[in-house]
Design brief:
By secondary structure, the protein is an alpha/beta fold. The protein is 44% helix and 19% strand. It contains ten helices and 14 strands. The strands form four sheets. Strands 2-1-3-4-5-11 form a six-stranded parallel beta sheet, with helices on both faces. Strands 7-6-8-9 form a four-stranded parallel beta sheet, sandwiched between helices. Strand 1, helix 2 and strand 2 form a beta-alpha-beta unit. Helix 2 packs parallel to helix 10 and helix 5 runs parallel beside helix 6. The longest helix has 20 residues.
């Protein structure tokens, strides 16, 4: 009898803990949104996450940001917690285009919609909808500027982002779709710097030892572009070697204005975040069918038009 009573007591306590953990609401109609981002060590993702949180709160939802620190296992923990705590929707900026699929599927199987922001999953059925920048087209346009800036000949380095991220390859493919048609433009090195500023600086410093005579550097995001530019400043080659980025970060826009970076591609994370929150709201209201992918346009930023842009958007 004592043992049975003990188990009943423990079971009751566990039920109470789970109920508290689910964050049962004073207002049953109050919806909760989990914003799970790849890393908060990148200003672009900080802006994306905070914009989504602000937009959700404006709509009367409860929102919380979870940092996966570029770790798929930690991202998995966040998903498990979000489902266990009773969140009504998940906005996901994935750590890995393949590795994050299982996490999204588990949430979907539990009845929690997943709206991807910026980073695309390789399985479109693993998410309710994916809202991403048109990285490929943006880098096709950037590739054209790159060719013109080099006068159709020269040597360059490409710094890739995370190899498990579709954005890395969409940007690289768009760029090469144009540049590879010009045989006198030679890529002497292609290396990943994980979308990280410090790593990009270190990687380019190493590459410059073997290839000191390059003419340009193409970077898959602005954090790497700024790191690459910093490496060039350190060796006194910042005025000789052109640097091209992608994102439209505050640092990159400021650098173009002051004659540093040659160009970047402006993404619009505010639109991505607002669309993801809007889709969540439509789901809460009963909508069940969403576009598999929504492409958000990007724009080329150069010294000629930089005055109309600010960080992650237009003035």
């Amino acid at each position: 009898m004592y043992i049975i009573y003990r188990y009943l007591l423990i079971g009751g306590l566990l039920s109470l803990i789970i109920a508290c953990g689910r964050g049962e609401k004073n207002n049953p109609s109050e919806k909760q949104i989990a914003i799970i981002v790849s890393t908060l060590n990148n200003p672009w993702f900080v802006f994306l996450a905070e914009t989504a949180k602000d937009e959700a709160e404006k709509r009367g939802y409860v929102a919380r940001i979870f940092d996966s620190q570029n770790n798929t296992s930690l991202e998995s923990d966040h998903f498990e917690n979000a489902v266990a705590l009773g969140y009504d929707a998940i906005l996901l900026n994935a750590t890995d285009s393949d590795g994050s699929v299982a996490n999204a599927r588990k949430a979907m199987e539990a009845g929690v919609p997943v709206f991807c922001m910026d980073r695309e999953l390789n399985d479109p059925k693993a998410a309710t909808s994916q809202i991403v920048s048109d990285s490929y087209s943006g880098c096709v346009e950037l590739g054209g500027l790159f060719v013109r800036s080099l006068g159709k000949k020269g040597k360059y380095v490409e710094l890739l982002g995370l190899v498990g991220d579709n954005n890395t390859w969409n940007r690289s493919k768009g760029f090469h779709y144009v540049v590879d048609h010009f045989p006198e433009i030679e890529m002497v090195a292609q290396q990943s710097a994980d979308f990280d500023r410090n790593k990009a600086m270190e990687v380019l410093e190493s590459i410059l030892q073997a290839h000191p005579d390059i003419d340009a550097v193409f970077c898959g995001n602005d954090a790497m572009a700024m790191g690459a530019y910093q490496a060039l400043v350190a060796v006194g080659k910042d005025e000789k070697i052109q640097v091209f980025g992608f994102d439209g970060s505050e640092d990159a826009v400021g650098s173009i204005q002051s004659g540093g970076l040659s160009a970047t591609v402006m993404q619009f994370p505010q639109k991505i975040a607002e669309t993801a929150v809007a889709f969540s709201g439509e789901f809460f209201e009963g909508k069940t069918t969403f576009p598999q992918k929504t492409l958000v346009d990007v724009e080329l930023v150069t010294p000629e038009n930089v005055r109309i842009y600010s960080s992650y958007g237009k003035e």
